Amino acid sequence: MKPETIEAAGVRLRPFREDDADDIAAACADPETQRFLPRLPRPYTRDDALAWLRDAEPAAWAAGGANYAIADPASDRLLGTIGLSHVDADRAQGELGYWAAPWARGRGVTTAATRLLAEHAFADGFHRLEILADWANPKSVRIALAAGFGPEGARRGAAFNSDGSRRDVAVFARLAGDPAGPVARALPDLPDGRLTDGVLALRPAAPDDVDFYLELMSTPDIVASHVPPLVPDREEIELRCARAQSRWLLGERADLVMVDAATGAPAGDIGLYYQEPPTAQAMIGYCVLPAFRGRGFARRATALVARWAFDNTAIARLIAGTNPANAGSQKVLESAGFLREGYQRNRLPGIAGGRIDDILWALLPGDLRETS
After folding, report:
1. Cβ partners under 8 Å of residue 282, min gap 6
2. Which residues form the N-acetyltransferase domain (predicted)?
C-alpha cells in the first residue's frame, strides 16, 4: 500500500502532517484513549506526537501496512487514526487498529473509516483482515461488527496492560469475499436502552455495577443456587461487569439489572443466555436482593425479558431451571406461563462438593402471561 488520500462515505483518510501533532497529543492524552491503548506515554505530550510522526508512522508503511489520519472532509481536521499492521504478505493478511478523538466520537466516522480502509486493502491484494478488540471496549466491538468483521473467538494474552501484564482480546475478521454490510446481531439493543412495565425497569449491566453485584452474589441463598455455589471475588465481578456489554453485542448473553422504577435502586439481576442458537433456544436466570422480595420483581422481569426476546430475536423457546426446594422460583415461572418439562437428577454442583437436582421449565411464545 502507499500513502495516498482516499475518500468515501463522508470520511477522508489521508497521510499525516506535522500540523496534526496538537490534535494527536490531545486525543492520546484522553483517559479513554489511554485506557484502551495502555502503552501510550503518560502523560502524552506534543513531543510524543512529533516523535510518533517522525518514527512510528512511516515505519508502518515501510512494513507493508498503512497509517492514515481520519479527517473531516469539510475542514480536514484530524478526527482519529486508522492503521494496518502485523502484515503477513505470504498469507495476504493484516490487522486493523483505530482510535477516535474525543471530539469525533459518536458520529460513525471510525466505522466509515474501517469500511473504507478494508475495501482499499482488499483491492490492494489483502485476503484476510483482523480486528482485535478489548472485551471491555464495547464501542470497538460495535465498530468491528458494523464494518462487517465477524467474531471468531478470543486470543489469549494477546495484548499488554499498562503494568506489563497481558490480557485476552476478542478477535474479529473479514475476508475479501465477505459481504460489506454489518454483521447481523443475535441480541439487538433494547428500545431506549431499557425495558419497563412502570413498576420495574431493566437496564444492561455496566462496569459501575461492581459493588451491587458483589452484594447480590454474596447473599447466602443466591450463592447456594449459583453455578458453582461460591462467592465470586471482586476481580471476577469486575471482569463480568466490564465485559457484559460486549457479550451482549456478540449475542452470547444479556445481563440486566432489575431497578425499582419508583426509587431507581438496583434490586436484582436477570440474565438471558443464548446457549443454543442453532435450535433457537435460550435460558433465563434471575435473583433478587432480600430487601426487594415479595414485590413480584422476578415475575415482572421474567415477563419483560421473555416478551422482548420473542418479539425481537430468533429465540423460539426459553428454558429455566429451579432447585426442587425453591418453591418461590417455581411460582415465578408458573405465573409467567412456563411449563414443567422434566426432573434432572444431580444436574448441578452443590455446596461442599455435593450435587443437587434441577427441575426443567420451558416457555413458548404462546405460553407467556403478561404482567398486570
Report:
1. 272, 273, 274, 275, 276, 309, 313, 315, 317, 318, 319
2. 11-178, 200-366
pLDDT of residue 372: 66
Which residues, other chains included, contact 87 with Cβ-Cβ below 8 Å and sequence gap of 6+?
A: 63, 64, 65, 93, 94
Looking at residue 350, what is its pLDDT?
85
Whether pLDDT at 164 is above 90: no
Q: CA 159 → CA 36, 169, 188, 355, distances in Å?
A: 10, 7, 28, 39
Tens of pLDDT, residues 270-317: 999 999 999 999 999 999 999 999 999 999 999 999 999 999 999 999
Q: How far is CA 49 from CA 79, 104, 161, 254, in A?
A: 15, 19, 21, 40
Average confidence score pLDDT of the chain: 95
C-alpha 72/C-alpha 78 separation (Å) is 7
Q: Which CATH number applies to 191-367: 3.20.20.370, 3.30.70.1060, 3.40.190.10, 3.40.630.30?
A: 3.40.630.30
* Percent of residues, the chain, with pLDDT higher than 70: 99
What residue has cell string 503494568? 163
Q: Per-residue DSSP letters for 240-301?
A: HHHHHHHHHHTTSEEEEEEEETTT--EEEEEEEEEEEGGGTEEEEEEEE-GGGTTSSHHHHH
User: At which residue does the C-alpha cell 474501517 appear?
Assistant: 114
Output the CATH code of domain 6-175: 3.40.630.30
Beta strands in 176-209 (DSSP E): 195-196, 200-204
Is it the case that residue 349 has pLDDT exceeding 70? yes
| pLDDT, position 163 | 85
Average pLDDT over residues 40-69: 93
